[in-house]
Amino acid sequence: MSTKITVIPGDGIGPEIMNATLRVLDALDTDFEYEEAFAGLAALEAHGDLIPDATLESIARNKLVLKGPLTTPVGKGFRSINVTLRKEFDLYANVRPVVSLPGTRSNFENIDIITVRENTEGAYLAADAQVSEDGKQAESKTIVTRKGCERITRYAFDMARREGRKKVTIVHKANILKAVSGMFLDVAREVSADYPDIESSEMIVDATCMKLVMDPWQFDVIVTTNLFGDIISDLCAGLVGGLGLAPGANIGENAAMFEAVHGSAPDIAGQGIANPCALMLAAAQMLAHLDMEPQARRLRQAIRDTLEARDRVTPDVGGNGSTRSMADAIVERIQA
């Protein structure tokens, strides 16, 4: 029986890299069925809504999403599409792996770090945000719950155990934010006690950022709250060459969404030179989520081999190829 996936091509370069990614998935004989849906500027122009009801219904029905980059219009009245989807489907775990790949613009080698970020609460959501009438003061609430802290920490430790990881670093700011970050740290300590086989350490967020750029090899899995995780996961992407190689998964109890975390790059849209690797690596995360680990490994290895050979790769990774030619090279290696 085939698995149906809601496919959101996205804005800008999204449709180009999505087409390339679906080609490599088909080459893996995955027997997926794709249900196209729309969000972002394309949806706003066609349907008058950034996230049409039909898209939400498709996700609720299929519970599995592969999503290209989306553009949220700048200005008041437009809430982040990604934040809305995470809240709507309670996609509480944001999982961002970074791995060193050949041929990339990076100052580091042998990086292999996973950031697990709480996705549905905390400062990032700007609860009850308001600006005073005179425009001289702005405020918003930071709200965390014991449930939210517990389930994200447990997800990180369960993932570490499942994937043979050795260490989880709990990142916080409990020395200053004693209530909200203190709660996260207290709950994380309680959870870590249930995993004696996994080394657990604690680190203040600013020290974490410093140590990531000085000695990133000390990190294995990082678990943290929403805003800190947003910053740290992008920092980690910089260690391996940037967001063009950074996939992301958003996992909940009843749905999961996999995406390229870079932007829609409207400046190169339609030129056929966008690197599809981030979305392809997100597709590999999706395969692993579906217990299709052999296919996930084949896809990751084909990407690595193509980058190492610089075989028909896009200009950002040192080639003069196109999105299509890079997909051709990866498909050929999958089928070899």
TrEMBL record:
InterPro entries annotated for this entry?
A: IsoCit/isopropylmalate_DH_CS, IsoPropMal-DH-like_dom
Q: Which residues form the Isopropylmalate dehydrogenase-like domain?
A: 4-330
Q: Which GO terms describe its molecular function?
A: isocitrate dehydrogenase (NAD+) activity; magnesium ion binding; NAD binding
What keywords is this UniProt entry annotated with? Oxidoreductase
- Renumbered to this chain, the signal peptide range is none
Question: Its Gene Ontology biological processes?
Answer: isocitrate metabolic process; tricarboxylic acid cycle
What EC number(s) does the entry state? 1.1.1.41
Q: What class of enzyme is it?
A: oxidoreductase
Keyword presence, Glycoprotein? no
Q: Which NCBIfam families match?
A: PRK08997.1
The Swiss-Prot or TrEMBL record describes its family as follows: Belongs to the isocitrate and isopropylmalate dehydrogenases family.
What is the protein's name according to its record?
Answer: Isocitrate dehydrogenase
Q: Which organism is it from?
A: Marinihelvus fidelis
